[in-house]
Amino acid sequence: MGTSGKRPRSEDYAAPRWVRIAGAVALIVTVLITIVMVTGLGGSHGPGRHFPRAGVAEPSPR
After folding, report:
1. Which of 1, 18, 36, 57 is the most buried (most CB within 10 A)?
2. Nearest CA to 45 among 55, 54, 57, 33?
3. Structure pTM?
């Protein structure tokens, strides 16, 4: 009755543009973070960065 026998076009099921852009941005950010972590370009981060080193003497309380 309302069917013409044609298959739907692939464009009818495509994701909206904003979804594709958001996915591309998320992928790029993930790749950049991975590169920084693997190469060590980000420097030394972590909880040990906020504590004094073992060889540094703390000032004595008065």
Report:
1. 36
2. 33
3. 0.54
